[in-house]
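Hi support team,

I've been running sequence recovery on a batch of backbones for a student project. Most finish fine, but this one hangs at about 90% for roughly twenty minutes before it completes. I'm not sure whether the input is malformed or the queue is just slow. I've pasted the C-alpha cells below so you can try to reproduce it. Let me know if you need the job ID as well.

Thanks,
M.K.
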C-alpha cells in the first residue's frame, strides 16, 4: 500500500456526519440554515442595535436557565475566547495568590499566565500526570482556586466543588468549562466563575468568552477595578460587566458566533436542558468507552472510569495499531479530527462526544475503526 492509497469504507460504515473534533466542534446544519435565513436583517448590522442585543439577551437568559443560576449570579461576555479570559482573570479576579490544578495543556497554560504576572504572588500549582487529576487543598493564603471542569487535551473530567471549608468570600472558585459547559452536569453553588468559549458543546465558533459569575465574583471584579490596579480596557472585567448588563460586548463581536450559540442553547433547552444534554453525552461515552474496554487492541487512556470525560474521549491503541494511520484513513473517508492532542504524543485517537454529535454516528465510527484495524498495515 502506497502513501496515496486509502482504505475505502463501505457506505454503511461512514457516519452521517463525520465531524468528531474536540474543537472547533460540529455545528448543526439546522443552526447554519437558521443563520442564513436571518442573515439579511442580522449579519452586517450594528452590535449596539436591538437585532444583535436581543441575541445577547437570549444567550444570557438561556444560560441562566440552563445552569439554574441562583439569584445574584450574572452572565458576562467578552471577546478573545478562553485564553483571553485567563489574562482578564489575572487582572480582575485574582487578588494576590491563586491555586491551580494542572493536569493537562490548558490548565497548565492558565497557571503559566498567572506565574508571569508581576503584580501577583507566585501561584500554588498542584500537578498530576496526564490521564489523572489532583484535588484542591484549602489554603488561607489563596484567594482564588482554578481548575478545568474538563481537560480537553487528555480527556479527564473533574467534579466541580469548593475546597472543604472555604467560603466564596475567602477563595473564589474559577472553573475553566470550555469543553465541559453544556455537556456535563454542574452545581452553580460550587463555583464563582464558570467560564467557557462556545466552540465545543455550544456548537458555535470561537473568539468569544462567556463567564457565569457569582455575587462574590462580581464583588471581587468591582473591588479590583476600583483599587487602582491598572487593567487593559479590552480585558477589564468591570467593563465587560457594564456592557453585558446592556446586552452587548465592549467591542464588536462575531455576529455569526452569537447567533449559532443562541440557536444551540435553545435546541438544548427545547429537548430538556442540561440533564438532557448530559444524558446524551453519557450515552455517547458508554458507546465509545464500552467498545474500547472490550477491545483487545484498544483501551481508554484515563484509567479511572469516574474521571473519563463524557464530552471528549481519549482512546489508546497498542503498538500493533498506528493511531495516526487510523486518523488519516478516517479523514480520507470524510471522518475528520480524530487525531490525538498534538503535545500529548500518545498512540491514541481523541473523539468528541458533544451534544450536537449523534450517538448513532459514534456507533458507526467505532465500527469503521474496527474495519480499518483489520486492514491496517502491520509494523
Amino acid at each position: 500500500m502506497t502513501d496515496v492509497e486509502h482504505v475505502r469504507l463501505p457506505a454503511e460504515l461512514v457516519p452521517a456526519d463525520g465531524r468528531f473534533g474536540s474543537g472547533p466542534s460540529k455545528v448543526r446544519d439546522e443552526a447554519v440554515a437558521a443563520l442564513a435565513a436571518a442573515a439579511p436583517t442580522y449579519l452586517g448590522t450594528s452590535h449596539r442595535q436591538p437585532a444583535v442585543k436581543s441575541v445577547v439577551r437570549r444567550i444570557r437568559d438561556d444560560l441562566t436557565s440552563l445552569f439554574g443560576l441562583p439569584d445574584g449570579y450574572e452572565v458576562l461576555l467578552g471577546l478573545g475566547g478562553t485564553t483571553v479570559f485567563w489574562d482578564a482573570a489575572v487582572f480582575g479576579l485574582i487578588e494576590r495568590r491563586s491555586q491551580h490544578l494542572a493536569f493537562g495543556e490548558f490548565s497548565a497554560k492558565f497557571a503559566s499566565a498567572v506565574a508571569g504576572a508581576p503584580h501577583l504572588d507566585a501561584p500554588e500549582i498542584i500537578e498530576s500526570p496526564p490521564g489523572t487529576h489532583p484535588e484542591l487543598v484549602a489554603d488561607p493564603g489563596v484567594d482564588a482556586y482554578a481548575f478545568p471542569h474538563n481537560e480537553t487535551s487528555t480527556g479527564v473530567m473533574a467534579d466541580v466543588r469548593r475546597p472543604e471549608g472555604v467560603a466564596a468570600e475567602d477563595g473564589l472558585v474559577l472553573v475553566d468549562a470550555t469543553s465541559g459547559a453544556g455537556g456535563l452536569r454542574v452545581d452553580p453553588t460550587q463555583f464563582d466563575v464558570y467560564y467557557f468559549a462556545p466552540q465545543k458543546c455550544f456548537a458555535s465558533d470561537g473568539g468569544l468568552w462567556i463567564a457565569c459569575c457569582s455575587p462574590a465574583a462580581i464583588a471581587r471584579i468591582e473591588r479590583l477595578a476600583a483599587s487602582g490596579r491598572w487593567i487593559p480596557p479590552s480585558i477589564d472585567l468591570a467593563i465587560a460587566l457594564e456592557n453585558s448588563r446592556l446586552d452587548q460586548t465592549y467591542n464588536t463581536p462575531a455576529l455569526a458566533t452569537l447567533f449559532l450559540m443562541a440557536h444551540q442553547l435553545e435546541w438544548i433547552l427545547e429537548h430538556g436542558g442540561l440533564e438532557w444534554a448530559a444524558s446524551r453525552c453519557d450515552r455517547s461515552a458508554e458507546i465509545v468507552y464500552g467498545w474500547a474496554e472490550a477491545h483487545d487492541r484498544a483501551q481508554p487512556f484515563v484509567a479511572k472510569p469516574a474521571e473519563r470525560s463524557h464530552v471528549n474521549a481519549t482512546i489508546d491503541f497498542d503498538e500493533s495499531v498506528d493511531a495516526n494511520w487510523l486518523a488519516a484513513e478516517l479523514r480520507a473517508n470524510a471522518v475528520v479530527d480524530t487525531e490525538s492532542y498534538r503535545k500529548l504524543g500518545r498512540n491514541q485517537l481523541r473523539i468528541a462526544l458533544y451534544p450536537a454529535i449523534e450517538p448513532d454516528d459514534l456507533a458507526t465510527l467505532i465500527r469503521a475503526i474496527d474495519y480499518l484495524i483489520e486492514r491496517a498495515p502491520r509494523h
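--
Follow-up from support: It reproduced on our side and the slowdown came from queue contention, not your input. The first strand starts at residue 74 and ends at 79. No action needed from you.
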